Every structure is written in structure tokens, then in C-alpha cells.
Amino acid sequence: MVRQEDTRLRIEFGQRSQQYQEPAHIALMHIIPERDGILNSLLFLEAIISAGKPPSEMLRELHREFGEFHYGRKDLRVEPAVGLQLLDRLLTATPDSVAGYEVTGVETMDGTKLLFDDESWLLFRQSGTEPVLRIYSEATSISKMNTLLAAGEELARGQ
Are residues 109 and 45 in the same domain? Predict the structure, then answer.
């Protein structure tokens, strides 16, 4: 079973569950509390062998079943107070559209996330450990994902 949860992807194999968060950040539930690249690679290899198909075919099947989504991220050097003000502004004065795409909702689970009608989204999140504002996007095409990231950067810079 595959589930998208915010910026995380959870894949469940029977009793086992893997959780993927951002590139190269994979946490295993009920096995070890930290990230382990070697174990994750072995589990991915096991999934490929069990499916009996190359990863490219497995990905095409996922795209057929769930649609195609592309993920991107930009990091901006921003003082925490400035980033937090942006998050508040996006929540209290949510734009009607971003880059010509109508904003259909807002979520605040892990920052301020602007939602679009085709399940694409744009998330702004101030780092809690460094002066960095992270802008994430997931969209139905690479072009739309890049457009949303660029528009997000413009919003963050006050343009």
C-alpha cells in the first residue's frame, strides 16, 4: 500500500512499513529509530525482486494507478523571524492564485501549504535549526512544479 502524507511517502509491505521523507531521508518504523541507507537499499532491492520487474516498470505502474507527481525544493537564506512572518501572511492573507493557478485551500501541519485543484501543492516551512526558509512543491508535471517553486520564491522575497 502506498500513501502520500504531507512531504512523506509511506510504503507498506505486509507487516513492514517504510516512510520516505524528502530525498535520501528514509525512516523505518518498528525496526530502527534512525535512518539507515544500507538497510533501505536492501529493502528496496527486496521489493524489486519480489515484484519481479525493473524499478522503471514499477514506477510506471505507480504513475498509472496514482497519477504522475513531481517533487522539488528550494532553500532560501532567510532569518527565522522573516520566514515566520511570511508563513503568517500566507495564512491570514492567502493569495487567490499563484502563478495563475487557483489556490483551493491551505494546510498548516508543517508550515503553510497552499493547495491547488489537481492535488498539486506549494509548502513554505521555516527551518527550526538554521536561517533557512524551505519551499517545497509537488505537481502533476515538472514544468508546473518548477513554476510553483519560482513563484514561491517570488512570494518569499516579497515580489
Answer: no
83 and 114 part of one domain:
yes
Domain housing 18: 2-66
Q: How many domains does the chain have?
A: 2
One domain for residues 79 and 140: yes
Mutual angle of helices 37-51 and 55-66, in 10-degree steps:
80
Q: Are residues 90 and 54 in the same domain?
A: no
Q: How far apart are CA 104 and CA 132, in angstroms?
A: 27
Same domain, 61 and 98: no
Write the DSSP assignment of the chain as a string of letters: -EEEETTEEEEEETTEEEEEESTT-EEETTT-SSB-HHHHHHHHHHHHHHHTS-HHHHHHHHHHHH---EEEEEEEE--HHHHHHHHHHHHHT--SEETTEEEEEEE-TTSEEEEETTS-EEEEEE-SSSSEEEEEEEESSHHHHHHHHHHHHHHHTT-
pTM: 0.71
The grid coordinates listed for 70 are 513531481
pLDDT tens profile 2-58 = 444 444 444 554 555 554 444 445 555 566 555 667 777 888 889 999 999 999 999
